[in-house]
Amino acid sequence: MLNRFFQVVCLCGLILSGTSLAHAGDWPQILGPHRNGIADAEQIADEWQGGKPPQLWEARIGAGFAGVSVRGETVVLFHREKGNDKLTAFDAAEGTPRWTTNFPSTFRPQIVEDNGPRAMPTIDQDAVLAYSPQGGLYCVDLKTGEKRWERQTHEDFGANGGYFGAGSSPLVVGKRVFAIVGGDKKRAGVVAFDLESGATLWTAINDQASYSAPVLAVVDGTPHLLCITRLNLVSLDPETGEERFRTPFGQRGPTVNGALPVISGKHALLTASYGIGAQFLELKSKGVEVVWSDELLSSQYTTPIHIDGAIYGIDGRQDGGEISLKCFDPVTRKEHWSKSGFGYATLIAADGKLLVMQTDGVLKLVRLSKTGYEELASTELLSGTTRALPALANGRFYIRNERTLSCFDVAKR
């Protein structure tokens, strides 16, 4: 019983601090150190001399929708060239490649043309975890790229790639890797793997996969592995995989769940497009209550940011219709302000500002404020489509389009 107590205490500490032993200024996983889009260690400029942040370097890359992860001076990208998915490590300062590790791929998407990885890699200490569109879960050494282990989850657990291939970034806590696999016929909707060996630790729930990634939350001292699946939000015990609660979220048909749950204390905000809208939930040790549900925010795949009691989110879809940036109170549903005329965009908050990276390559710098929309700067950084989630680490802002990875200096001087 005492050992169990210390396990829970240690696990809760890891949850609250993010990926194990991440350095200040790192961006080691999807949406940064805490999986919430907030770079709390960064100091970024209020304006750009000459109207544009300096470009530090660029590199030619392969296909994919996956952005980079960063630890220290190493940048890791998961992309595809010809018949291989590739993990490539770059020097953060200069953009020179350090190593590349190949994984054969025959993936062909059903709808879009891009056949590259969708899921951002996860870095934990000296390990890199990557999840391919065909369900390949790979672990390599951060310094050398040497393969440690791999699992073919679609074959092992009877899952399929859905509309766009597998695209949920794995989560590492302690010595466990959590992945939303989608093995709905083998009770393997979510699977826990051993970080050292890749062995299966547990499988849980008969749910199909989404494109959202799992997060961890602590409610009244109880750790919850929260997973948005194809049609539900599910809470699992991270140690055993036991289901604690679930609530419907999603819709059948040509829809996707892509945004991550936004956690604030005992509450969670979920959002999706396709007529699904948003839900605000109260999380309990063994249950959940839907506080409200409406279309106040309908984000196709961008995860909103919760900071200082306000939600900042992109409302709309990349493939059509009006798109706006909204700021509102998630408890009262009071809308502080809404700014239309945006292209679809992803969000990073840092130093009292919001980096709004539009998919058309335009970056907007916006003040984080409930009083009104205040744009500090706007510039085109890349041509093409910048769909992949950006990263911000040590004052460097990383974005990619279909064939180029670029790094810009946004640090405050």
Detailed description of the structure:
Helices cover 5% and strands 45% of the residues. The protein has 413 residues and is mainly beta. It has one domain: YVTN repeat-like/Quinoprotein amine dehydrogenase (Methylamine Dehydrogenase, Chain H, 7 Propeller). A four-stranded antiparallel β-sheet has the order 1-32-31-30, with no helix packed on it. The longest helix is centred in the N-terminal third of the chain and has 16 residues, at 2-17. It is globular and about 55 Å long. 49% of the residues are buried. Mean pLDDT is 93; it is low at 1-6 and 8-21.
Topology at a glance:
Layout: H1 2-17, E1 55-60, E2 69-71, E3 74-81, E4 84-91, E5 97-104, E6 122-124, E7 127-131, E8 136-141, E9 147-152, H2 153-157, E10 171-173, E11 176-183, E12 188-194, E13 200-204, E14 215-219, E15 222-228, E16 232-236, E17 243-248, E18 262-264, E19 267-272, E20 277-283, E21 288-294, E22 305-307, E23 310-317, E24 320-328, E25 335-340, E26 345-350, E27 353-358, E28 362-367, E29 375-380, E30 391-393, E31 396-400, E32 404-409
Antiparallel strand pairs: 1-32, 2-3, 3-4, 4-5, 6-7, 7-8, 8-9, 10-11, 11-12, 12-13, 14-15, 15-16, 16-17, 18-19, 19-20, 20-21, 22-23, 23-24, 24-25, 26-27, 27-28, 28-29, 30-31, 31-32
In short:
This protein has 413 residues and is mainly β. It has 2 helices and 32 strands. Residues 1-6 and 8-21 have low confidence and may be disordered.
The top-level CATH class is Mainly Beta
The proportion of residues forming helix, as a percent range, comes to under 10%
Low-confidence runs? 1-6, 8-21
Q: Return Rg in Å.
A: 20 Å
What's the main sheet like?
Answer: 4 strands, antiparallel
- Give the neighbour order of strands across the main sheet: 1-32-31-30
Number of domains: 1
Q: Number of DSSP strands?
A: 32
Protein structure class: mainly beta
In CATH, the topology is named: Methylamine Dehydrogenase, Chain H
Q: How many H/I helical runs?
A: 2
Strand content: over 45%
**Overall average pLDDT:** 93
How far the N terminus sits from the C terminus, by CA atoms, comes to 52 Å
- Please name the fourth-level CATH homologous superfamily: YVTN repeat-like/Quinoprotein amine dehydrogenase
Indicate the overall shape. globular
